[in-house]
């Protein structure tokens, strides 16, 4: 009888140890899953922010291209000559305030 009890105790002790190990591993995995979930959320937010910046930069590049095209036109040269150099056409009359 004593050997049977010892065997049952050993078996129960082994089951308890295995159950504790499984529980500890489950807790560790749960913590890691939560960490990865939070990291995923922060990376998604960062990705959305970077996509918004990319869109802004693409718009800025398009605006610069339009301005570059405008700078190459005669209209731009005329505007600069009028505003910065004060030039006018021969048949124009210029009125200045005193």
Structure description:
The chain is rod-shaped. The termini are far apart. The protein has helices at residues 2-71, 74-83. The model has no long low-confidence stretch (mean pLDDT 89). It is built from two helices and no strands. 82% of the residues lie in helices and 0% in strands. 0% of the residues are buried. It has 98 residues and is mostly helical.
How are the SSEs placed, and which strands pair?
Layout: H1 2-71, H2 74-83
Short description:
The chain is mainly α and about 100 residues long. It is about 80% helix and about 0% strand.
Radius of gyration: 39 Å
Outline the low-pLDDT stretches. Answer: none
The share of residues in extended strands comes to: under 5%
Beta strands, count: 0
Q: Give the N-to-C terminal Cα separation.
A: 123 Å
**Mean model confidence by pLDDT:** 89
Secondary-structure-based class equals mainly alpha
Q: Please give the largest β-sheet.
A: none
Percent helix, as a range, is over 70%
Order of helices and strands: HH
Shape: rod-shaped
Q: What characteristics describe this protein?
A:
mainly alpha; 2 helices; 98 residues; single chain
